[in-house]
């Protein structure tokens, strides 16, 4: 293949691909940042769903926060049947949410560890279903789980590199704390990713809010530099490329 | 539900009264060999009748890491609590003793 042409991975999210020259660059790490409830999980899960149903790209959804049964229930409201895809081995949902009963309570952490456990868990599923998309929802949980930030930073770089080297396009979500200006609790998220997308749900009057989406950066892409309207419809997330958001 | 729990506990007891210590490691983990040494040395003080050390190599058995939600290695797990990184012997001792007390309590209440 021509090295000069960046192969694009279509998100399949209506309106989004038009903002990013057709899709994410294949094999990149993309960060979806936003405050609570802005639609990060829905967008990321929709990326996995569309990959499996429309582009023949199996995907692994690693959930560190919401338990799988709730994700399935929520996505079913958009007509997206994850259970079925899981049975067909087109997607894998990896449950690393805190709701698992057997997970031991950590009472000590020494700054001499790596994330090779998480890496092995993810790669195991990537191999099993020959995945080319991976979502990790959400990175922010790691910052609460572990104290040693320096190790986390380094290990996350390694992990992202390993997953993308295995042929996957990686989507990470990160929650921007309510009063925060930056991109997340980690302060590494933006460096880690070659693309950053920010979701907003801003108050536009006393009684209403407006959702919008911004492509903050995307490697090798002439992306839109405006903030576009976004809505969560009965079919999931939809972006209006021609509509500039009134909110921000 | 309660029935199931009881049965589970009793089969476990019949099998052994030993405290299960599970050590998670991987092929690539640089700190794991040292952590394993520390754990073995510490546990030796208790004698092998007291505990049972189970080593899980996550590179070979990623499903086990997934089941228990173990991201970071090395991690040692004793009776529902865990420590990540090369553990200090003191903390390990406390964990084993804590687990011993717990099993004693269970026996006493029967
Ligand atoms: N069926 C639906 N129709 C319209 N909007 C919905 C529907 N389901 C969820 N939403 C909206 O989406 C939001 C949740 O989206 P999502 O879980 O993706 O947010 P998030 O950014 O991941 O939040 P968090 O940081 O809490 O994980 C809800 O707060 C709600 O406003
Ligand atoms: Mg979420």
- Number-wise, the strands of chain B total 4
Structural category of chain B is alpha+beta
Using the 3D structure, state the CATH architecture of chain B.
3-Layer(aba) Sandwich
Q: Termini of chain B, distance in Å?
A: 18 Å
Instruction: Assign a percent range to the helix content of chain A.
Output: 25-40%
- Based on CA atoms alone, the radius of gyration of chain A comes out at 17 Å
Most extensive protein-chain contact, per-chain counts: A-B, 28 and 35 residues
Globular, elongated, flat, extended or rod-shaped: what is the shape of chain A? globular
Which CATH class of chain B applies here?
A: Alpha Beta
Write a concise synopsis of the structure shown:
Chain A is of the alpha/beta class and 248 residues long. Chain A has helices at 40-54, 68-76, 82-87, 116-129, 140-145, 149-165, 189-192; strands at residues 8-9, 24-25, 29-34, 59-63, 91-95, 105-109, 133-137, 169-175, 195-203, 209-218, 227-233, 236-244.
Describe this structure as you would to a colleague.
The complex is a heterodimer of chains A (248) and B (110). Chain A contains seven helices and twelve strands. With 248 residues, chain A is an alpha/beta fold. Chain A has a single domain (27-99, 111-244), classed as Rossmann fold (3-Layer(aba) Sandwich). In chain A, strands 5-4-7-8-3-9-10-11-12 form a nine-stranded mixed beta sheet, with helices on both faces. Chain A has a two-stranded antiparallel sheet with strand order 1-2. Chain B is an alpha+beta fold and 110 residues long. Chain B has a single domain (19-101), classed as Glutaredoxin. Chain B is built from four helices and four strands; from the N terminus they run H-E-H-E-H-E-E-H. Chain B has a four-stranded mixed beta sheet. In chain B, a hairpin with a 2-residue loop joins strand 3 (75-78) and strand 4 (81-84). Chain B is globular, with a radius of gyration of 15 Å. Chain A binds chain B through residues 94-96, 100, 102-118, 120-121, 123-124, 142, 145-146, and chain B through 24, 26, 28-31, 34-35, 58-59, 62-63, 65-75, 77, 80-88, 91, 95. Magnesium ion (MG) binds next to helix 1 of chain A.
